[in-house]
Specification:
The chain is of the alpha/beta class. It has 13 helices and 16 strands. Helix 4 runs parallel beside helix 10 (319-333), helix 5 (116-133) crosses helix 9 and helix 12 (381-390) runs antiparallel to helix 13 (412-433). The mean pLDDT is 96. It binds pyridoxal-5'-phosphate.
């Protein structure tokens, strides 16, 4: 028996509580947060940090927002949860209606999930079950692009970048899929036809075995923070149609305005057959995700084979999460979000620019409310993390990437504090390593 009361809570944390991608033997220190409000995290020692991460893409309106608090309180008084098998409720129906209205027109059916990774699992199962129901059980492989990230569960992991993902460790149990070269044309670069050659060749050769192409539209997030040409996405849509393969777009990171469009697929003016959303869906209040699909897929699954879709999480369409999600989307749509993001984009471009000349910096890039400093070498987290905190900002690098995706509500002063701190920390870090 372990009794937490005898230990200091942070000591207990260090000895017993696993953090994301962390070790339980001499873990790096973590910073205890007492509260959060607006764009600030308040640490237990009283220090305040300007939040550059939106808690991994999600807290787009900042923290402790009165409108979202109000939606949660109101729903809590009615019910926080009921099962979704055989029952339904207004929070789910109202949120579904809103999501179907704001996502691309063909997406008319929605499946609520409890996390982003689960929505990717659901999307993959939908695609496979669709072809199975149509009498084409051979179409069960996926095709994706390198440098992708789709989550940490096994199905999702199998379509993450095979090198930077964890495929070797789990190679015995992960299904093997097809990987095309990642697009090289950046968001604003002129289109190079050669970019799509690898995807085209794999589709031409293997389409009889491929259920779906799955990719993150425009921005590849945790697999490298890469921004690619909308033309790549348009071509992918055309090729999926040509070879009769479904297209799954993972908008979990990009959805709800982050790239400057409400959904990143709008940059290419295309619609997927299945779309995953999550992260910012509840404004960062709690976990909720969804997979939306068109009538072709839902009819195919429902009229053939089993006749029912084989998935149903315990906490499906949690009313509390649905109510907050609807309030968060309404808050976003009623705000000048496009202008806010354009302003953030312009300011980040200027603010981070001094880094591009530094030796040890490979590239600085900004798209929408996403700013990335890519270094030539992976950063030493033990060294760099405390320096950001000392500068009064919360930035959480990974690998070679020092990046930010601030809450959309961040004002000019806080943003220049944030980018200034990033530039100072990176500059000092690189100069002491040289
Ligand atoms: C974060 C993320 C996921 C996984 O979502 P979780 O809620 O962490 O399971 C999947 N796809 C993309 C693109 C993501 O950024």
């Amino acid at each position: 028996m372990t009794d937490s009361s005898h230990k200091h809570p942070w000591e207990f944390d260090q000895q017993h509580v696993w953090h994301p991608y962390a070790t339980m033997v001499n873990p790096l220190p973590v910073f205890p947060v007492a509260s959060a409000s607006g764009v600030r995290l308040k640490l237990h020692d009283g220090r305040e940090l300007v939040d550059g991460m939106s808690s991994w893409w999600s807290a787009i309106h900042g923290y402790n927002h009165p409108v979202l608090n109000g939606a949660a309180h109101k729903q809590l008084a009615a019910m926080s949860h009921v099962m979704f098998g055989g029952l339904t409720h207004r929070p789910a129906v109202d949120l579904a209606a809103l999501l179907i209205e704001i996502t691309p027109a063909p997406l008319q059916k929605i499946f609520f999930c409890d996390s982003g990774s689960v929505s990717v699992e659901v999307a993959i199962k939908m695609a496979i079950q669709y072809w199975h129901a149509l009498g084409q059980p051979d179409k069960k492989k996926l095709l994706t692009i390198r440098s992708g990230y789709h989550g940490d569960t096994c199905g999702a992991m199998s379509v993450c970048d095979p090198v930077k993902g964890m495929h070797q460790i789990f190679s015995g149990i992960l299904p093997s899929h097809y990987f095309a070269d990642a697009p090289r044309c950046g968001f604003d670069d002129p289109w190079d036809e050669q970019d799509i050659a690898s995807l085209r060749a794999l589709l031409a050769q293997h389409h009889g075995h491929i259920a779906a192409v799955i990719m993150e539209p425009i921005v590849q997030g945790a697999g490298g923070m890469r921004f690619y040409s909308p033309e790549y996405l348009r071509r992918t849509r055309e090729l999926c149609d040509e070879y009769d393969v479904l297209l799954i777009l993972d908008e979990i990171a990009t959805g709800f305005g982050r790239t400057g469009a409400l959904f990143a697929c709008e940059h290419a003016d295309i619609a997927p057959d299945i779309m995953c959303i999550g992260k910012a869906l509840t404004g960062g209040y709690m976990t909720l995700a969804a997979a939306l699909t068109n009538s072709r897929v839902s009819d195919g699954i429902s009229r053939g084979g089993q006749g029912v879709f084989m998935h149903g999480p315990t906490f499906m369409a949690n009313p509390l999460a649905c109510a907050v999600a609807r309030a968060s989307i309404q808050l976003l749509l009623s705000s000048p979000w496009k202008r806010q993001i354009a302003t953030i984009e312009a300011q980040m471009k200027e603010g981070l620019a001094p880094c591009s000349a530094l030796p040890g910096v490979a590239e600085v890039r900004v798209l929408g409310a996403i700013g990335v400093i890519e270094l030539s070498e992976p950063v030493d987290m033990a060294v760099i993390q405390p320096r950001f905190v000392a500068e009064g900002v919360w930035i959480r690098p990974f690998g070679k990437l020092v990046y930010t995706m601030p809450p959309f509500i961040m004002g000019q002063d806080d943003l220049s504090h944030l980018t200034g701190a990033m530039v100072r920390v990176v500059e000092r870090y690189l100069s002491t390593r040289a």
